[in-house]
Amino acid sequence: MDPRIRAKYGQKLTAPGYKEAIRQPLYDTLIFLSNSTTQLRFFTQGLGGGTKTDADTNLALNGQLSKGQKFVCDGVELIIKPGSAGGAVYTRQDVFRQNPALAAPQFANDLWALAQSGSLKIVIGGTGKPYLQDAPLLVFPAQSGLILAATADQSLAAAANQTITSDYARVAGRPYVIYPELPIEENNDFEVQLNWTAAFALPSGFNAQIVCRLLGILYRN
Question: Which pTM value belongs to this model?
Answer without folding.
Answer: 0.87
